[in-house]
Amino acid sequence: MDHIALAERFVAMHFPAATTAVLAGSTARGTRTATSDLDLLLIGEDLFADAHTVRGSSSHAGTYGFEGEAVEVFAYTPSGFEEWARRGVAQHRPVIVHMLVEGLPLRTGPELRSLRDRWASVLQSGPTLGDAESTTRRYVITDLLDDFLDADDALERHQLAAALFDRTAELILLTNGRWVASGKWLPRRLRDFDPQRAAQLSAPLLIGDHSSFAAQVEHELDLAGGRVYEGYVR
């Protein structure tokens, strides 16, 4: 199946007013699996003039079924894209910016080149982790780590380990000026940054070596500035 042509047909049928359309995700990268959907970023000043959208909206995210495929849509007016892109950058997880810069253009409206140039430089610069946020993140990890070390319930320990991996991976990335992600993309981002550190953090977790996992979390905490507990004020 030609998924690029399918995506173009979807845009023409459901969002004809889109001046910019970018196909992102595994389809754009050529790494589709049996359960992959189509990820579409759409931008247009008159994007929400159609009956199936809310008039006056500046953003819309939804999942559609189309010709047997699932289509995830992220649609914005230019001002709506600006708002949500800035929000993603502030949260260190600029999903739609990655879509814009790294995806495959289907419609190249007049705003696409300038948007890509501008936001590509933002992605290249990376996130900034301020002192206050670093302290808060290290406090959260310190608290989780102590709970993990004290846990005697297998399910609780499993949940704490997963949370510890996520928070520690985020701390590693942000401390080194790298964007974070959620789900399967978090370990991918960590591997892309430093395969060795990713393996050192994940290997003991995968084999259930709790003491080694805790020691690696402690090591990463030290590299980022150390534990935070006494004297911390929210």
Structure description:
With 234 residues, the protein is an alpha+beta fold. The chain folds into two domains: 3-125, Beta Polymerase, domain 2, CATH 3.30.460; 131-224, no CATH class. Helices cover 56% and strands 13% of the residues. The protein has ten helices and five strands. Strands 3-4-2-1-5 form a five-stranded mixed β-sheet, sandwiched between helices. The radius of gyration is 21 Å and the shape is elongated. The termini are far apart.
CATH topology of the largest domain: Beta Polymerase, domain 2
- Judging from the principal axes of the Cα atoms, what is the shape? elongated
| Beta fraction | 5-15%
- How helix-rich are the residues, as a percent range? 55-70%
Question: What is the average per-residue confidence, as pLDDT, rounded to a whole number?
Answer: 92
Radius of gyration over all CA atoms, rounded: 21 Å
Main-sheet strand order equals 3-4-2-1-5
CATH class of the largest domain: Alpha Beta
Question: What number of structural domains do the residues give?
Answer: 2
CATH homologous superfamily placement of the largest domain: Beta Polymerase, domain 2
Number of strands: 5
Which stretches are low in confidence, meaning pLDDT under 50 for 5 or more residues running?
none
Structural class: alpha+beta
Kindly, what is the distance between the CA atoms of the first and last residues, rounded to a whole number of angstroms? 53 Å
Major sheet description: 5 strands, mixed
From N to C, what is the helix and strand string?
HEHEEEHHEHHHHHH
